[in-house]
Amino acid sequence: MLLNYFHKDLTEAGCDEAGRGCYAGPVFAAAVIMPKSFFHPLLNDSKQVKECDRTILRAIIEQEAIAYAVAQVDCEEIDTINILKASFKAMHLAIAQLKPKPDMLLIDGNRFVSYKKIPHQCIIKGDGKYTSIAAASILAKTYRDEYMQKLSVDFPDYGWNTNKGYGTPQHRDAIARLGLTPFHRRSFNIMPVQPELFEVEYAYEDKTC
After folding, report:
1. Which residues line the annotated binding site for a divalent metal cation?
2. Judging by beta carbons within 10 Å of its beta carbon (0-12, 13-18, 19+), is residue 127 exposed, middle or buried?
3. What is the CATH number of the domain that holds 71?
4. 198 with 207: CB under 8 angstroms?
5. Is omega for the bond preceding 41 within 30 degrees of 0, making it cis?
6. Among the four 95, 143, 174, 187, which has the fewest Cβ within 10 Å?
7. Start and end of every RNase H type-2 domain (predicted)?
8. What residue numbers bound the domain in which 176 lies?
């Protein structure tokens, strides 16, 4: 069962990103302040939740959250500052939108760049441990998936409507045949294609209902 807080008496925001290992598209991040009493049986790390259930959870989180925000950093900036810094920047942009401002940040992962003077706690696999981080993972994932599905209308050969920019065989084949689009991350050295990249991360994408 997910934990509802790290510090009982503080207003905490959970933060997570989506799309860090993708070949294409922005990296998204979400910051969410949930009521400390919130519970939903479907809520978990977004990678462990079916796509249709993520859609259900997104609506519930947006309705029940005390505050939430989603932000993105595009592929050009990812190539300029690197994906790790871009992930932190996306989190910062999301946190900046929160009202009320949190007293504490719960960050999924083992590294973070402090945002202003707000204390933070990095939690490895936190999206499977804390409600607010799990909620952030659902929002970041669903917003990014929606973005990539819209992009796929103009770039159907790359399969972004299903692979969301990860390095699937279809995606790698399209890169080899058609080259890179303006939405590909050139700093990832994906041309020529390197099949071993990100296959583990892709393996748990898009659980169907």
Report:
1. 16-17, 108
2. buried
3. 3.30.420.10
4. no
5. no
6. 187
7. 10-200
8. 1-209
